[in-house]
Design a protein that fits this description.
The protein is mainly α. The protein contains 18 helices and no strands. The protein has one domain. This is Nucleoside transport protein. It is found in: Cell membrane.
């Protein structure tokens, strides 16, 4: 049954992409690339979920991040003292300390890897490999790899010389890649909130899934010569090691403040809306209940059992209109109340920046580098969220095959 619903789910997601396609005839011509990319998603999902080797790799990576988070905790202990120690009682459960503080340390590690050229080397290598798989130019392949590791703002810095020459279609692909990924700096935070295997699987499947959706919703064939010569892989050029390290640590602190502020605002607003809906005479449904019923058919069609589709739909909608952190916080208390399949599918669905708030972040980031390109991104903002959400749906559907 999982396989049948999985096939239905994949076809359903592709249909949703096709109805919004800019060139449906050309999308049909991309079928070979699409099949290869879906096959790769299935392969990696099977590898990580159903093989000893895959589980071992995930275990190693999880242990590595646990070690890093331990070091991050030491830094937090120095600043916050007993609030983060075992002597602090219930304060050790504070979201800021357990989830947000490690972001600063992981950002520092990324700074070191960037300065030593290790991270740019990995990104460039993955870009070359993806070019051979995806059927898209090197710029799009490079950006896909970079989006998997950098933030949705930082990823465009290395392409600042290329942005003025990007057509609207190519800009859509670049922006969709940024929205369909997560930043390496917050992977550790997700590890503390969800099962590490689902976080890692989502990162890999989203990498291939965005190309599937782009081939359908935004197909193009242009005579493009991309040798990558103008890609700036040294944004820190001219800075000393400690300047770069300080910049990345400060950036990590900014992320903590932004995430914390958005969580306070969004969670408060959702609770306000829930209470307002309950004030309607004769109503027993909250705002999130209604969202759940709206998204319920979508959750069911991608393979989530019908009796859990309303809960899943509510969380999917929450992630779309707020952000991934809010949705995960809402998910944690009820995770054990749903089946293992639904847990897995919802977990991977939440691992991306696909939400309405990301439109402004991405458009603003591009506009800061090239004004005209930023305006283009803003104009297709809603379609951008639509495409990135389809990537998350496709990833969840693929994972559902194996439960």
């Amino acid at each position: 049954m999982s396989i049948v619903m999985g096939i239905v789910g994949v076809l359903f997601v592709m249909f949703l992409a096709w109805i919004a396609s800019t060139n449906r005839k050309l999308a049909f011509k991309k079928w070979k690339n699409i099949l290869i990319l879906v096959a790769l998603q299935l392969f990696f999902a099977f590898l990580f979920l159903n093989t000893t080797w895959g589980q071992t790799v995930i275990g190693w990576l999880a242990d590595a991040f646990d070690t890093l988070l331990g070091f991050a905790r030491e830094g937090g202990l120095f600043v916050f003292g007993d609030l983060m120690s075992d002597n602090g009682g219930e304060a050790t459960d504070v979201f800021l300390f357990n989830v947000l503080v490690p972001i600063i340390f992981i950002s520092a590690i990324i700074g070191i890897l960037s300065y030593t050229r290790i991270l740019p080397f990995i990104i460039k290598g993955l870009g070359i490999l993806l070019t051979r798989i995806t059927g898209l130019p090197y710029i799009e392949s490079y950006n896909g790899a970079a989006s998997m590791m950098l933030g949705q703002s930082e990823v465009f810095v290395s392409l600042k010389n290329q942005l003025p020459r990007m057509t609207t279609a190519r800009l859509y692909t670049l922006a969709a890649q940024a929205m369909s990924s997560i930043s390496l700096s917050i992977v550790g935070a997700f590890f503390t909130m969800l099962e590490p295997q689902f976080v890692l699987i989502a990162i890999v499947l989203n990498l291939f899934g965005i190309y599937v959706i782009v081939h359908i919703i935004n197909p193009y064939e242009e005579l493009i010569v991309d040798d990558g010569a103008e890609i700036s892989t040294k944004p820190e050029a001219g800075k000393s090691f400690f300047q770069v390290l300080g910049d990345y640590i400060i950036d990590g602190g900014k992320i903590v403040l932004i995430v914390g502020a958005m969580l306070i605002g969004f969670i408060a607003l959702i609770n306000l809306l829930n209470e307002l809906f309950l004030l309607i005479p004769g109503s027993s449904l909250t705002f999130q209940d209604i969202l759940g019923y709206i998204f319920m058919p979508i959750a069911f069609l991608i393979g989530i059992p019908w009796n859990e589709a309303q809960i899943a739909g509510s969380l999917m909608a929450t992630k779309l209109i707020t952000n991934e952190f809010v949705a995960i916080i809402e998910f944690q208390p009820i995770a054990e109340e749903v089946s293992r399949k639904t847990q897995a599918m919802l977990s991977v669905f939440m691992i991306s920046f696909a939400n309405f708030g990301s439109i402004g972040i991405i458009a603003g980031s591009v506009k800061g580098l090239h004004n005209e390109s930023g305006d283009k991104v803003a104009r297709f903002g809603l379609k951008l969220v639509y495409g990135a959400t389809l990537v998350s749906l496709l990833t969840a559907t693929i994972v559902g095959f194996f439960f």
